[in-house]
Every structure is written in structure tokens, then in C-alpha cells.
């Protein structure tokens, strides 16, 4: 939560610079091209200002000059703001060309330098006013970057802060409906219309399949896809209705009538869902929706030298927008196996997101100008077996030609880079140490830096890995300006990477250790601070100022994935610095969603603290709550068993009587020993150590061919072959060691011919000690002494047939065979 400030009265010394005449700016940005409709055509050529030369009076201050470089130069183009808000045009004339100082004064009426994202200029474009991209949000983010760069000032700046302000709309949780878990109601109301009129396109089995698949033959898949297009609280605003009524999308006859048909079907579905009423006995906070929160990921980052940045906020479409504000925008075209994921990100399976070579050239030019750079990303590898290295981020033209590459090989991150002392393919790479296993299949913050002093360095989750670059740093003269920037693959598609990317930033300066740690702490993704008003629950007069609540429990909430929300680290905050608190109890806090307490994810139910400060942490835990209606519709609130003087007596429900456990599949009463157990057993049975060189060498060779599971159903003939080889080696070591064999088989004459040695006495001298060790005691299911003795005697008879011409070592060989047959059989193996 660092870099969070409660909103306090702003010093007068800041007001002139930060928020001049915001109220007057509300009406000045009048429509310039047909109202506030979204501009779908992409008018951006991707090049810097194509020739607007300023020849008016010089800037009167450094701040005016910063405004010109960061904002005016980027917006003066005719295809952006210059055709309307220039000299003699509509007010405010913030891109007028006759006097930069007058343009600066006009711009100050529609910007908020302390909170750029709240600038009227940003809000207006975000609503669709003359956006030059296909995404209004991308235009708004880009202008936010322009204003942030103006406000940041010096190279050493760039860290922004999140400031807590009271929500614009404070309301109590109301009764609500949620989508049923079962699809049967949907199947009888909405699905028949979708299946009849939409399945030719919106089905996973359609010839020209188009997502979402709400017309799928799989009713559960169709139901899941349709939920985000149905508004349970305001049926006419459902996307399924709006697409027909207002956007005339594939109407099957008359669009108005078709929209009415769809609306009636959805209304029937909604009417069948029971209304969830808020329990009046609960002690509750005010409510919030995710979209009502303060964007948490807008604060705390150091981006002063970011020359390209992708945050993936668009959430759909074929373009991932560069919103760094540094021209030309390096927008990436998505192709192949790439999908948008909830919470701002792209998931790569076998595709890529690639920029043009012309726009990628800005990386070449701006990095060569400084001789240093940083590549920063939040990534979640899909697994730890990818190699190549698989390309996560690359500025290259194929496997053998790169300027820089961030890749994955198993558990390692790799940094390939071309400079004077490396090859054209960036080799040798700098990689994290194998034993450290830095790369994990989870969300990680990765930064790779290069400068002429330290060379290449790798940071994971805010920390330097300690891996040193063996190559001396070199100049970047050999960098190729014709290469293309790409995510998730190589430019030729030959080295795909699987995983999720949630943010990528390229800086043309090295991020310091402190700045990297700062960006790691700032986090990533669609994260908001939700301020839950509890002023009405606290007996503190200062919790309300001029009828505006000032006391909140704040929780950072983010899209965990496409199916849930992550609630993290709740804290209490008073926005009134004059308020004081004296041990106000807070006990058993729970999260409510859509009129009821969430059935799972109640990690804060054990909270028991006393509030004594204006800013106080309540818990360090995080928890996940299931997404129901979506970020714009799900309504959250908090409940308490006790807060201040308010209490709720919670009666734990009587647990149901558990059902008797179901009978499982029959399981064998016996199993087999695994590889290490077999090795240890044979060592004990023969008195030969496991460390015997010949035994140890053979065991390492055949280890993978021995059983690795105790289930007898997994045993195979191949396992028995390995067991036999190991048994022979152990018995060979026993018999060849005269001391061990004399102690093991006392009295047996190994020098005699088989016909003499294996008389009745000799056989007992071999079989008695062997069977005494092999066979257990009182085990009813094992082979009997008599049956095993019969089998081994038959083996001796078979092997002793050699007349009077037996080799000198024949007797010893027979003993080895009998020993191996004994210790390598079922009596040893089965347990």
C-alpha cells in the first residue's frame, strides 16, 4: 500500500499549478466531430508530428517548455486535436500554434497535474470525443501519459501516487439477483432465441466461429458465454439487446422487433431468478462496484523514462496499444493463439503480438541515444519446461538476429542482447542460475537492464538475482533498425512461448534497484482501491465533514482472472486529518456480494482489532471471491460482527449429519516394493552393501526400469527384467567375496563339482540360510518354504547337468543363480 495518501486539504502553493479552473473546463471541450460517439477509424499514421513547426514567442518558463514537449507536440496534429482546438478554433485552444504560452494557459483549464487520469481532457476523450484510435480507453491512457510526462518534469521524477478521495456515489447495498449456477432456466428462456438466430456464427462448431459462443450446442458453454451479455439489473441495457436495437447487428428481420424478442426472453429469465434480500440483522458498510474504485495500478510506478508501455487494458480486439505517450506509438497486432484475459493481460499459446518495423524503430533510436535500457514485464509462464529459449519479449528478425530478447528455458530467464562483444543472435546469453529456479509458473515481475558499466542484469520480483554477466559491456552500433518488436514468439513464429503477459514497459534508462523494487511493490493489472464507507458505524463526529463521509475501510481489489476477484490487505483510512480514534473495535469482517455474504473466501472473518489511528492496517491477507455478474455490475459490501457500538450475533448453522462414506473401488491387499525399497531389501538379504561399486553402477543404470509405484496393477514384465539383473549382481558380489560367502553359506564346498557339492547336505547348506532370509514369518499369503525349496531344487538339478566336464567355477555359478532366483522373486518383491 505504499505511495497511498489520504486526501488532505491541498496547500495553496500547489493549487495554481495542479488544478486551475477545472469547473470551467467541463463545458469548454465541446464536441468537435459529431458529438461524443466513439471513433472507430484509426487515423493514426504512427509517426511523430508530421511537420507542425512552431514559430511563435518562446516558452516563458520551464513548465511551459515541458508542456510543449510532452503534450502540445503530440496533440497539435490535425488528426488529433489541432483541427479544432488550434488557433481561432474551439475553446479551449490548448494546441494553438501562434503562442505556446497561451496554449499552456488554455491547457491548464482541462488538466489535473496532480492526478492526470482525472483530467477533463482525458475523461472527454475516454468518452469517445475524437479518439484517433479504435479504442477510446487507449486514447485516454495515451493522453494520461502525455500529461504525466508534463507533470513529472525532470528525469529523476516519474513516481506517481494514488490519492484516496471520497467516492462520487455512496450507496447502501440493495437487493440483487445473481446468475443461477444451473443453466436450466437459461435453456428454457434465452437460449432458444440464441440457438435459432445466432448459432451460425456464435458457436464453437460454426464454420466461421465467432466468440462469444452463446449459441453453442453445449448449453453450459453457451450459458457461460451469455452471462457477460445479460444485464440482470437493467434488461434493456443487455448487450444482446443493444446489439440488435441500437447497433443493428445481424438482425434476422426487423431490428426493433428482434430486439424486443430478445429483451422479452431475457426478462423471462430474470423474472425466474429469486431476489436476494440483504439480511436486515447484518451490520453493513456502504456498497461499491469495482469500476467505482480508484485505480490502484496508476500509482507508485516509476515510468519517467518509459518509451513504450503496454498495459492491455482494452480487453478485446486485434490491437494491444502502446500508451507510453512516446511517439510513434508502438501498437502490437495480435495473431495466432492469443487471447485477452480478465484483469488486463494477454494469454499466449501459439501466437504473437507484433509491432511494425517502422514503429519499432523508436526503440532502436531512443535506446542507442542513451546506450542503456531496461525491459520490464509482469509475466506468468504456463509451465517450466519451455526452451529454445522460448521468446517472451524480443526485438529481432528471427532466431539468429536480435537486438535484445527476454526468453525462457525451463526454470531460467535468459537475456540475449547484441552489442560489440556478443554475436548477432545475442549469444552468449545471461541466464539465471539453474539451482535457483527463479522462473516459476506464477505471476512474476521481471526486469532486465543493460548499461555500459554493469552490462546485463536480471531482477525477479524486485530483487537482483546475483547472476553476473561474463561478457564485457560493448557499444550498440550494430543494432539493426529494421527489426520488429514482438511478444510471445519470434518474428518468424518458430519459438512460441506459453503464458500470460500483464504489463510490458521499455525504458531508455537503467532502472535503479530502488525503482525496480518500487515498480514491483506497485503491482500490476486491473486493480482498484474500493472505499467502503463506515462513517455511519463509528461514533466519531469528524467522520463526516459537510455531509461527506470521511471514514472508510479500504481494500485493494483486482480481477484475479476471468472468474474471480482478489481482495487484498484491508486497511482503515480517515480522509479527515483532524479525526482522532480511541480503540474502536472491529471484529469478524466479511465480504458481501450482490445482497448476501460470499459463501467462500471469508479470510477476514477472524479479524479482531481496535482502530486507534487515522491510517491502520487490518490484515495482511488476501482472498478470492467468485465473479458473478461482472466488474460493472457486481456490488460489494462489508459485514461485521462488531464495529464500534454496533454488533451482530452470528449463530453458526448446525452442520448436517455426514453421509456414510461411499464404497470405493476394490483395492488390492498386496503391493510391490519400489526401486529404492528393492535395492535396500536385496542389500539386507545378501549382506552386500548398496555402495558396492558394481551394484551401485548397475542400479543407477536400471533404476528407471524398476517399479516406481506400489500398486501391483502397475507391475510389468519390464520391471521383472530389471529386478533379475540387480539380483544377479548382488548374488555375484556375495559369492565372489570368499569371506561373505563363507559366513552366509557355512560348510558348503564351492570347489567341488556340482554332482558332489549339491548332495542333500550341500543343498541344505545353500537353501536353508537363503530361505530363512527371504521368507517372512507367519505371512499366510506368501509362498511356503516347501514350495520355494522345490522350485530351487529343480533349478539346481537343471543347472548341474554337465557330467564330469563341468567348468571349475560351475558350482559357484549355480549358487549365484539359485541366490538370484530366490531374492529376485515374489517373496522379496510383494509386500
From TrEMBL:
> What residue spans carry the Polar residues bias annotation?
40-55
Q: Which GO terms describe its molecular function?
A: carbohydrate binding
> What's the protein here called?
Concanavalin A-like lectin/glucanase superfamily protein
Q: Does Signal appear among the keywords?
A: yes
Q: Which UniProt keywords apply?
A: Lectin, Signal
Region (Disordered), start-end ranges: 37-61
Matching entries from Pfam families are given as: Laminin_G_3
Q: Which domain of life is it from?
A: Bacteria
Q: Which Gene3D superfamilies match?
A: 2.60.120.200
